[in-house]
Amino acid sequence: MEPQLSHTVAEGVATVVIDHPAKRNAMTAAMWRALPPLLTELAADPSVRALVLTGAGETFCAGADISSLGASAEGGDAPQRLAVLAEEALAAFPRPTLAAVRGACVGGGAQLAAACDLRFAEEGSRFGVTPAKLGIVYPASSTARLAALTGPATAKYLLFSGELIGTERALRCGLVDEVLPAGGLAARVAAFTSVLAARSPLTQAAAKEFVAGRTDRIAHWEDEARRSTDAAEGVAAFLERRTPHFTWTPASTGE
Question: What span is annotated as the signal peptide, if there is one (predicted)?
Answer without folding.
Answer: none
